[in-house]
């Protein structure tokens, strides 16, 4: 009973100090369209530091800076394609969640489909392959005599 209380107190104290606070950015936009464009862009662009987070979800300093930069470009009236191209030029195709189809990304786009088709072909071939019926082989008279001799000896 004492052990359970100690465990619960330890767990409570560990969770009590685990605070995930992130800065809240409040940007003032000219209109709702600019705000929606900004939100769409920061959700579409990946944080260069983080493995799999977009700019909107990341708390890294570079993501904060890039959100500020995207905000400034949106307020300057730059097109979405200009903003995305700026980010790609600066950080490479990694910042795009949906990279463009090019010779460098063929495997990324078409690899899963190719592997799926190969798997389907393998399964179909395995299902259609019938086990070969074992052919009965007759013993020659010499072999039959030898077998009978062995059986008689035992």
Structure description:
The chain is mainly alpha-helical. Helix content is 60%, strand content 0%. The protein contains 6 helices and no strands. The protein has helices at residues 2-16, 32-44, 61-76, 80-91, 106-128, 141-153. The mean pLDDT is 83.
Topology:
Blueprint: H1 2-16, H2 32-44, H3 61-76, H4 80-91, H5 106-128, H6 141-153
Helix pairs in contact: 2-3
Count of β-strands: 0
Shape verdict: elongated
Structural class: mainly alpha
The end-to-end span amounts to 71 Å
The description of the largest β-sheet is:
none
- Roughly what fraction of the amino acids lie in strands? under 5%
Radius of gyration: 34 Å
SS element count, helices: 6
Helix content: 55-70%
Q: What is the mean pLDDT?
A: 83
Low-confidence stretches: none
What is the ordering of alpha helices and beta strands? HHHHHH
In short:
With 154 residues, the chain is mostly helical. It has 6 helices and no strands.
Features:
elongated, single chain, 6 helices, 154 residues
């Amino acid at each position: 009973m004492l052990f359970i209380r100690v465990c619960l107190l330890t767990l409570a104290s560990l969770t009590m100090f685990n605070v995930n606070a992130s800065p809240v950015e409040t940007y003032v936009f000219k209109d709702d369209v600019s705000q929606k464009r900004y939100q769409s862009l920061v959700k579409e662009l990946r944080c260069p530091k983080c493995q799999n987070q977009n700019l909107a979800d990341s708390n890294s300093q570079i993501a904060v800076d890039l959100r500020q930069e995207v905000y400034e470009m949106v307020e300057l009236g730059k097109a979405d394609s200009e903003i995305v191209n700026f980010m790609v030029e600066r950080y490479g195709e990694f910042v795009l969640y949906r990279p463009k189809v090019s010779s460098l990304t063929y495997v990324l786009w078409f690899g899963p489909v190719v592997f799926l088709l190969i798997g389907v072909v393998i399964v179909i071939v395995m299902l259609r392959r019938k086990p070969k019926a074992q052919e009965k082989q007759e013993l020659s008279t010499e072999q039959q005599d030898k077998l009978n001799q062995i059986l008689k000896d035992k």
